[in-house]
Amino acid sequence: MQSITLNVEDEERLYNSFDPQRDLLCDEVKTYLMSKVQIEGRKDGVSLEVRSAAPIDQKRFAAAIHRWAEDEEASIKAARRKNTVQQLWMFGVGVLFIALSLMLQPMLNVVWFTVLSTIGAFSMWEAAGIWIVENPKLRMRKHAAARFKNQLSLSFSAGE
User: Fold this and answer.
1) Residues ≥6 apart with Cβ < 8 Å to 122
2) Mind spelling out the 3-state secondary structure of 8-26?
3) Do 44 and 88 touch, CB atoms closer than 8 A?
4) What is the pLDDT of residue 75?
5) Considering 67, 98, 128, 159, which has the largest number of Cβ atoms within 10 A of its Cβ?
6) Are 59 and 92 in contact (CB under 8 A)?
7) Three-state secondary structure along the chain?
8) Are strands 152-158 and 2-8 parallel, antiparallel or unpaired?
9) CA 158 centroid distance within chain
10) Cβ-Cβ contacts under 8 Å for 114 (sequence gap 6 or more)
């Protein structure tokens, strides 16, 4: 089990100050937790210890963590849909331009042939970049969010 310690001076620093209900985690906490989980890409659970000078509302914090994990999963799902659309679009444009350059090669001079084939190759390269770079990042984020949602063990210590 991966162990993460979170030191907090004031409970309100855990939450987003712009949120009227004060049940959203602040960006600093989310970034810190996500970076810790992604560094060690384990498949087992996460043990999160929250240390503070004063007692923390445990139910409120647990609910905020759970809500963040659910929001993160929804965000990842939307990003994956967007990536899929972008990949298909860029790949289709690439195939179209390469096919045009090959079909029109006898009628085009060298410059236009090069321009069309370069646009096609660039588009296909961009589609591959999304598949090779962006999709693995999303998978890592999805795995980390699932660990916080399903395999989280919380402990609190106050007065230290």
Assistant:
1) 94
2) ECCHHHHECCCCCCCCCEC
3) no
4) 93
5) 98
6) no
7) CEEEEEEECCHHHHECCCCCCCCCECHHHHHHHHHHHHHCCCCCCEEEEEEECCCCCHHHHHHHHHHHHHHHHHHHHHHHHHHHHHHHHHHHHHHHHHHHHHHCCCCCCHHHHHHHHHHHHHHHHHHHHHHHHHHHHHHHHHHHHHHHHHCEEEEEEECC
8) unpaired
9) 32
10) none
CB 150 within 8 A of CB 66: no
Residues written for the chain = 160
- pLDDT tens digits, 25-62: 888 888 888 888 876 666 677 888 888 888 888 888 88
Contact 76, 141 (CB under 8 A): yes
What lies within 8 Å, CB to CB, of 141 at 6+ separation is 34, 38, 72, 76
